[in-house]
Design brief:
Distance between the termini: 15 Å
Helix content: 40-55%
Number of strands: 6
Keywords: Hydrolase
Strand content: 5-15%
Shape: globular
Structural class: alpha/beta
Pfam families: Hydrolase
CATH superfamily of the largest domain: HAD superfamily/HAD-like
CATH class of the largest domain: Alpha Beta
Number of helices: 11
GO molecular function, one term: phosphatase activity
InterPro entries: HAD-like_sf, HAD-SF_hydro_IA, HAD_sf, S-2-haloacid_dehalogenase
Protein name: Haloacid dehalogenase
Length: 242
């Protein structure tokens, strides 16, 4: 574990890793899914959402994430065999991102990890949504650098997002790519493209999570939670200094 201390920056996915993406989305979808006569499984629901998101983001890579969600909301209703929601209902679904809850361990874990690394956000979201998350669920926690899809004009796993990550960490923090650890839950959005980009990665499993899973997960470090990673890093730091 001491080896992990040789790195200088953690590049975080936020939604799914720090924030409960799936739980927040399920709550935001309750006005829609409560109309179902037969409940849909979590696996089937997120398989549809993943497909619709990926398709919409490919078609409109510069669209803000809250607008992506608003755009797929009526398509999701159609796939579930439900009446079309109103524009207001779809807009409200898209606007829910900033209210999705942080995982219980996230804030303390971030505080611990900030003692050892620069903390960077590389997220498939927009400024309005992230601001809501930062000031609300994350209680004002400040990252050293924030890079969002709204700025990049593309969504992970697009390689351009990781090119921007490397470029900005180098120019703004003075840290080279060989000192970065991509830290995330999603294999599809983060770990696979990070490996292609030549980055090390730490898999935050978040047991029970579905979105972004791949048949063969890849990673350099693996932890069930961010709190578990923070504890391991803290222990390694204590051993190093003893």
């Amino acid at each position: 574990m001491t080896y992990i201390l040789n790195y200088q920056a953690l590049a975080f996915d936020v939604y799914g890793t720090i924030v409960d993406w799936e739980g927040g989305m399920i709550t935001a979808l309750e006005p829609l899914t409560s109309q179902l006569k037969t409940p849909v499984s979590k696996e089937d629901l997120f398989a549809i959402i993943h497909e619709l998101e990926k398709e919409q983001q490919a078609q409109t890579p510069a669209m803000a994430y809250r607008d992506v969600l608003a755009a797929i909301h009526p398509k999701l209703a159609q796939r579930l065999g439900l009446p079309q929601p109103s524009v207001e209902e779809s807009t409200a679904f898209g606007a829910s991102v900033g209210k999705w809850p942080a995982f219980p361990d996230s804030i303390e874990a971030l505080k611990t990890l900030s003692k050892y690394y620069k903390l960077v956000v590389i997220s498939n979201t927009d400024h309005q949504s992230f601001q809501g998350t930062q000031t609300g669920p994350l209680q004002g926690f400040q990252f050293d650098l924030v890079i969002l899809a709204e700025d990049n004009g593309c969504y992970k796993p697009d390689p351009r997002a990781f090119e921007q990550l490397e470029s900005q960490i180098s120019s703004k923090l003075g840290i080279s790519k060989d000192k970065i650890i991509q830290t995330a839950q999603s294999q599809f959005h983060d770990h696979y493209p990070a490996k292609t980009a030549g980055l090390k990665s730490s898999w935050i499993v978040r047991p029970g999570s579905i979105m972004g899973n791949m048949p063969e997960p890849i990673y350099d470090w693996k932890f069930n939670t961010l709190g578990e990673m923070a504890a391991a890093v803290e222990n390694a730091g204590k051993r190093k200094n003893s």
